Amino acid sequence: MQSHYLTPLFSPNSIAMFGASERENSVGEVVFRNLLSSGFKGGIYPINPKHDKVQGQKAYKSIDAIGKPVDLAVVATPAKTIPAIVEASGQHGVKTMIILSAGFRESGPAGRRIEDRVVEVAKEFGIRFIGPNCLGLIRPDKGVNITFGNNNAKPGNLALVSQSGAICTAILDWAEVNDIGFSSVISTGIAADLDFGDYLDFLVSDPKTDSILMYVEGIKDARRFMSGLRAAARIKPVIVLKVGRHAAGAEASMSHTGALVGSDETFSAALSRSGVLRVETISQLFSAAKALSARSRVYGDKLAIITNGGGPGVMAADRASDLDIELAQFSDETVKALNKALPDVWSHGNPVDVIGDAPPERYRAAVDICLNDPEVDGAIVILTPQAMTEPDEVAKVLIELADQHKKPILTSWMGGKQVENARKLFNNAKLPSFRTLENAVDASHYLSSYQKNQRLLLQTPAKTSRRHVQPDVEGARLIIESALSEQRKVLTEPESFALLGAFRIHAVRNGIARSAKEALNESID
């Protein structure tokens, strides 16, 4: 089978680095140190004409001096030197590059000219590259860490694609504390060449990647972006954290990436139609990823909450109401079964309070009964560590139940040291576990939202009549030119309706009525 065009980037056999250095805390020093310490098994070639060795490795005056094939070239030299480096790499047969350096479009017209030249030379030699002005790339299973951050990534099944290098480093630091691993971490930089669509195209067929996380500030090529999203979302969960939701953030995003931001409402609607889940915070990004990695899928949002504490149950119910999640109304049969299985003082409703002294078997009975109710689409199980609770044993019970039921079980073992081992049991069993019950409820919401978006993705537009497919382009042009001639940037309401009509887009009929009778006649017509 033919390999993907980005395979040399994500799975290189050899890496050359221009600007590898020993100058402490320089980009060239940090990146090369990270590469050497990450466990890469292939050839590593530092290129620095001023040194014979760099960090103990033989250094080369040029890429030609290596005398061996190079899959991936990494560049950490000043912007003005890079067009010549790209040309030399192309002549050597290099097909992928990572350009870490800044000083391109973000620095003004002179930098933009250098960037245009880099793109031109890269196209001439068929080179695909990340950046410029990016943090770099991490591929944990290949021992590749080509970044100037302080964190490596643990191996896992989440792919992260981010327009912000700073967000990448923050997420990596957060993930390390929370024991979250990655298949790939990609900092796109200003994306002069490779962009979201290219990365999605690779990751969707990457066996190491189960879910794709994206941090988006703005879009350059909307058509390719949406096409890539729709294709990827059919196969793997795609979760997007899109910033610039408000005017101030959008303006800051524009200055940071130079990419188009556009209407946030339009972007959000487009994501929904693409089968993609959108979140608003980094914490939500990982909560959603945990939920979507669950063994089961939910096809409704009627929730059962099972808890050994009344207070946490009320808090979870409040959060569910905030998100318009409906608590399931148990059937009479379910209530009878719970009455038989639980102490007389149980809550007799949803949330189901199994009382603080609940042993594992009481949890088993309550969760099993609730999930067997047709009105329940999923369950959140909460445990607070009390003197008589057995966090590990209850966790084992839930793991068994998850194997028996198609409906999702999300857990929140509240606390710290007493429940830490139970969380490890959940993680090993890939049963979603959350430190806070609010995150667990949020995750339930993400599950149902994701399934709704997946159904939208599978919908196809209705067929239109062949007689009305041709737009009135000339009429639309006249409407816009008329407004521009009056130095207006906003169309009037009649002009807007006329423009929609020119493209055969149905809109609400409107007109002027001076009496109820005229309004009635107008509506009949």
Feature tags:
16% strand; 525 residues; Rossmann fold; five-stranded parallel beta sheet; alpha/beta; seven-stranded mixed beta sheet
- Would you state the CATH class of the largest domain? Alpha Beta
The tally of structural domains comes to 3
- Overall radius of gyration: 28 Å
The side-by-side strand order for the widest beta sheet comes to 9-8-11-10-12-13-14
Share of β-strand residues: 15-25%
What is the terminal separation in angstroms?
Answer: 63 Å
| CATH homologous superfamily grouping of the largest domain | Succinyl-CoA synthetase domains
Number of distinct helices: 19
Shape: flat
CATH topology term of the largest domain: Rossmann fold
Low-pLDDT residue intervals, each spanning 5 or more residues: 246-250, 252-261
Total beta-strand segments = 19
Architecture overview:
The protein is of the alpha/beta class. The chain has 3 domains: 7-289, Succinyl-CoA synthetase domains (Rossmann fold, 3-Layer(aba) Sandwich), CATH 3.40.50; 297-457, Rossmann fold, CATH 3.40.50; 467-524, no CATH class. Helices cover 42% and strands 16% of the residues. The chain contains 19 helices and 19 strands. The protein has helices at residues 7-10, 27-37, 82-92, 109-125, 165-177, 196-203, 222-233, 247-257, 264-273, 282-292, 310-322, 332-341, 360-371, 391-404, 420-428, 437-458, 473-485, 493-502, 516-524, and strands at 14-18, 43-47, 53-54, 57-58, 72-75, 96-99, 128-130, 136-139, 144-147, 154-162, 181-187, 211-216, 238-242, 277-279, 302-307, 326-327, 352-353, 378-383, 409-413. The strands form 4 sheets. It has a 7-stranded mixed beta sheet, sandwiched between helices. Strands 2-1-5-6-7 form a 5-stranded parallel beta sheet, with helices on both faces. Strands 15, 16, 17, 18 and 19 form a 5-stranded parallel beta sheet that branches. Helix 3 links the parallel strand 5 and strand 6. Helix 10 packs across helix 16. The longest helix is centred in the last third of the chain and has 22 residues, at 437-458. The protein is flat and about 80 Å long. The chain starts with 6 loop residues before the first helix and ends with a helix. The model is unreliable at 246-250 and 252-261 (pLDDT under 50).
